């Protein structure tokens, strides 16, 4: 890797408690050219050194994806270079291969990000089959929304983890949705609502709600985190048992969570599976993920210039 430039928009979205799509698109327009310039200058490279242009086309917010794709198509056309379409979820998994510095596939893949909680059968570096996903909120979204309910700062994942350090994870019993369900699927909206009712009271109930003291915030954060992580680890274990692969690759922003990493490690040791999890800076969105573009290019898996974006998650095969 020659450079890894990340233009974060967290500050712009902070006061809204989540990503505002139109603000995200505009910020992409403003930052894309400076980011490309910096990526090249830090790598000590020129446009003429490039072998191809990789770009994320799915899944994601349509406006942001279009800004990236338009820039990539322009570069590919002007420089007469091949264009390579990268799936953002698969790139999160590929970050595990980059961090390991060796081939890690076949493996069970697990992406836990702000918008997705997906389990994959990673057959090779360029062949990923989606096995299961969430029927409502993603894990990271639940962290962000629960943080907002508790008055903690955005992005919610790190603030929940920080608050939870001083909390009792057994103080509240929140739902572990689908933990015992046969299907590889997730649901986090019930968990989020359970936290909301704990904080603000159940609609129609006369039970008085205790004040949201620092200790109560810590206990709720710890209990929420424990519930979410138990489900995430449990479902990974289910996928490992189902597929029989001896490696598990985990990526996405929520995989930066220390407790989740520790619990996954414990599960891996118990089941004898090798856990491959990127360092935290390669779990959250980064430029190194684009390494998947190189794998695709090497195999001739390029795309024509009329390539389009696919904002939604491509359905399971
Ligand atoms: O993968 P990512 O950087 O962006 C995409 O969604 O593609 O993931 C961002 C998500 C946010 O929801 C954020 O709250 C969560 O990752 N996150 C964490 C932690 N760090 C980031 N969640 C739990 N614990 C963390 N330490
Ligand atoms: Zn991501």
User: CATH homologous superfamily name of the largest domain?
Assistant: ATPase, nucleotide binding domain
Helix content: 40-55%
Rg over alpha carbons: 20 Å
Order of SSEs, N→C?
HHEHEHEEEHHHHEHEHH
Quote the average pLDDT. Answer: 95
CATH topology of the largest domain: Nucleotidyltransferase, domain 5
Shape: globular
Structural description of this entry:
- This protein is α/β, with parallel strands linked by helices.
- The protein folds into two domains: 10-91 and 285-298, ATPase, nucleotide binding domain (Nucleotidyltransferase, domain 5), CATH 3.30.420; 101-283, ATPase, nucleotide binding domain (Nucleotidyltransferase, domain 5, 2-Layer Sandwich).
- Helix content is 46%, strand content 13%.
- The chain contains eleven helices and seven strands.
- The protein has helices at 10-14, 21-43, 62-79, 88-100, 139-149, 156-164, 189-200, 214-243, 258-271, 280-283, 291-298, and strands spanning 53-58, 83-87, 107-112, 117-124, 127-132, 247-251, 274-277.
- The strands form two sheets. A five-stranded mixed sheet has the order 5-4-3-6-7, with helices on both faces. Strands 1-2 form a two-stranded parallel sheet.
- Helix 5 (139-149) packs antiparallel against helix 8, helix 7 (189-200) runs antiparallel to helix 8 (214-243) and helix 8 (214-243) runs parallel beside helix 9 (258-271).
- The mean pLDDT is 95.
- Bound molecules: 5'-O-[(R)-(carboxyoxy)(hydroxy)phosphoryl]adenosine and zinc ion (ZN).
């Amino acid at each position: 890797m020659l450079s890894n430039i990340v233009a974060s928009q967290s500050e712009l979205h902070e006061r809204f408690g989540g990503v505002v799509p139109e603000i995200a698109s505009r910020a992409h327009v403003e930052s894309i050219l400076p980011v490309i310039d910096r990526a090249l200058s830090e790598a000590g490279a020129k446009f003429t050194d490039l072998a191809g242009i990789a770009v994320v086309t799915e899944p994601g917010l349509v406006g942001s994806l279009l800004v990236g794709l338009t820039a990539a198509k322009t570069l590919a056309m002007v420089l007469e270079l091949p264009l390579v379409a990268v799936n953002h979820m698969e790139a999160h998994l590929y970050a595990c291969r980059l961090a390991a510095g060796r081939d890690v596939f076949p493996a069970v893949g697990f992406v836990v990000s702000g918008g997705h909680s997906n389990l994959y059968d990673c057959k090779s570096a360029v062949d990923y089959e989606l096995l299961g996903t969430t029927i409502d909120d993603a894990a990271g979204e639940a962290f962000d929304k629960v943080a907002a309910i508790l008055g903690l700062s955005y992005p919610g994942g790190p603030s929940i983890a920080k608050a939870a350090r001083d909390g009792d994870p057994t103080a509240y019993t929140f739902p572990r949705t689908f933990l015992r369900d046969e299907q590889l699927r997730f649901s986090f909206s019930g968990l989020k609502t359970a936290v909301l009712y704990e904080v603000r009271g159940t609609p129609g109930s006369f039970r008085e709600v205790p004040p949201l003291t620092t200790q109560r915030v810590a206990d709720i954060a710890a209990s929420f985190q424990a519930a979410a992580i138990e489900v995430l680890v449990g479902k990974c274990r289910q996928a490992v048992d189902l597929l029989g692969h001896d490696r598990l690759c985990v990526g996405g922003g929520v995989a930066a969570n220390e407790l989740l990493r520790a619990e996954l490690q414990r599960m891996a040791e118990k089941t004898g599976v090798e856990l491959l999890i990127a360092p935290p800076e390669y779990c959250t969105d980064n430029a190194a993920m684009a390494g998947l573009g190189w794998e695709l290019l090497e195999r001739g898996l390029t795309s024509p210039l009329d390539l389009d974006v696919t904002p939604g998650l491509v359905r399971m095969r």
